[in-house]
Structures are given as structure tokens and as C-alpha cells.
Amino acid sequence: TKNAPLTSSNLFSENLCIAKDENIHNDEVDSQVAKSAAVFNTTTLETLYAQNIYEKIYPASTTKILTALCAIKYGDLDQVITVSENACDMASDSSVCKLKPGDQLTLRQLLYGLLLRSGNDAAIAIAEGISGDVASFAKLMNQEANSLGATHSNFVNPNGLQDKNHYTCAYDMYLIFHAAVAEDEFVDIIHSSNYDAYYKDISGNPVEQKWTTTNQYVNGFRSNPDGITVIGGKTGTTGEAGYCLVLYSQNANHEPLISMVYGADCRGNLYLLMNEILSKYGNQ
Q1: Residue 255 in 3-state DSSP?
Q2: Reduced to 3 DSSP states, what percent helix, strand and coil does the chain have, rounded to the nearest 5?
């Protein structure tokens, strides 16, 4: 009724796009190249495009959005973290920041390595620095996701390396990313094309590294979709997850958009579909 009191569910959803489990416009683009995708206008609270947004997917390195959110909310960005041997124990083909055991970096520096270079080693260092170990940090990740309403997800690690028990859906990632872009520090990082990291190694010697974003809109490899200004985002790729991208941008009316493509069959088609859904529907 008109004068009915607000419920907790009203308050929870008042600034969110509420999307039904139905596809929108996916027959008008090359949707067959990916498993799921979406475009949300965070000003009008409209779902402009939806493709299998509640279908179970593997998030790959887009997991690091939640890792970063937890680090910013519950950590001290000036905290100095000593990189462990466990953090550096990565497969030879793993995406890493080339950290070494004993390296000392601030949490802020590690977040740049996490979100730009997509360092799996930085993710473990952050998890251990915040919670002491990966399992405890994964518990924090799940608590944070649940508090945001992302109830179709389960996270077991901070970097998104493949695990059958590590999964989400596109709508849950919208909820998580929506919370992340409310943090100025997060937006500043994903908007950066590169970052120069200066820190000390185990012997106190200076180390210098330059980390460049994997987001091809931000690093200049791809042109922005028509009528869209890309601010930043996070990529992710594994064999099981396919090619993934969660993106923060603005349309011609300067309205913020959150968009995503999950499970694309190749990197070219990832950006093809993202271009299509933003160019066609981002300014509606």
C-alpha cells in the first residue's frame, strides 16, 4: 500500500537492477559466441541486455573483483605484506606479477598487481595478508558475496584458478562489481593502464616492476564501443571458464553501465560481443 513501511528487501534492492531469469535481446546479437552476458544501467536501474544471467559459470580471474573488494573493505591499504613461498608457488603458465618470497609490498601495490596484471601470486599474498591463509580469506569472500545477495556463488580461492566448487553467475558478478565500483580506490585502479611498482626484496634491495592492464579497452588495443566511454574492468581466462570480461563504463548521457561477457569462445569474440551489446543497448 501507499503508506506501507519499507521492508529490508526494499532497502536492499533500491539501488540495484532487479533482473528476471529471462533473456533480453540475445537473438539480436552474436550471442552464440559466449555462455552469458549482460548490460545494466546503474542510474535508471534497467537491465538492458540479458543472456543466461543466472546460469552457473566459472569466473576465472574476475574472481579478483571480490578479492579486491574484501581487501579494500577489511584491510589497510598501507599495510606492508611479506610475500610467502606459497604465494609464489604458481604453475609456469600462470598469470603472475613475478613476486618473490620475502618481497615486501603494500596492500595498495598488491591490488594494482591483482587488478592490472591479474597476478595470481598477488591474490594469494593479499589473502594471507588479510586473513592469514587462503581458506580463511575464502570464507570472508563468501560472507561478503552473501551479504550482497550473490547467493548463486561459491568461492574457494582469491584468484579464480579452476575448481569445480568455485563458481558464480553473471547476475551475482553484477552485484559484486556494483559494490566494488562504489569504492573510489577500486575505480582508480581499474581505470589505470599501467602501474610502476617500487618495493623491497627479502634482502632490502629495491625492486622495480611495471604492470600493464589486461583490459584491451584500457590498454588501447581495442576502441571503445560506439557511444560508450570505458572506465575499466577485469578480465578472466581459463580453459573451463573461457574468455570473460566485467566492464565499468558510461553512456552518452554519462550514466554508469556495468556489463559483462562470460564464457566467450575466443578473445576476439569476447570483445565482439561486448562491443555489440554496449553499442546497441548501452544508450537506450
Answers
A1: coil
A2: 35, 25, 45
Quote the CA–CA distance of 116 and 119 in Å, as a whole number.
Answer: 8
Q: What is the pLDDT of residues 135-176, one digit of tens each?
A: 999 999 999 999 999 999 999 999 999 999 999 999 999 999
Say whether 105 sits in a helix, a strand or coil.
strand
pLDDT above 90: residue 1: no
Report the DSSP beta bridge partners of residue 81.
Answer: 105
Give the three cell numbers for residue 59: 569466473
The pLDDT tens digits of the residues spanning 268-283 come to: 999 999 999 999 999 9
**Separation between Cα atoms, residue 102 and residue 211, nearest integer Å:** 19
In angstroms, the CA 278 to CA 271 distance is 10
Q: What digits encode the pLDDT tens for the residues 212-223? A: 999 999 999 999
**What secondary structure does DSSP assign to 171-216, as a single string?**
HHHHHHHHHHTTSHHHHHHHT-SEEEEEEE-TTS-EEEEEEE-S-T
**With left for phi above 0 and alpha for psi between -120 and 50, is residue 6 left, alpha or beta?**
beta
| Alpha carbons 37 and 53: distance in angstroms, whole number | 7
DSSP assignment of 115-173, as one string? HTS--HHHHHHHHHHHHSSHHHHHHHHHHHHHHTT-TT-B-S-SS----TT-BB-HHHH
Catalytic residues: 61, 64, 118
- The residue whose grid cell reads 556495468 is 258
Q: How many residues does the chain have?
A: 284
- The pTM of the whole model exceeds 0.70: yes
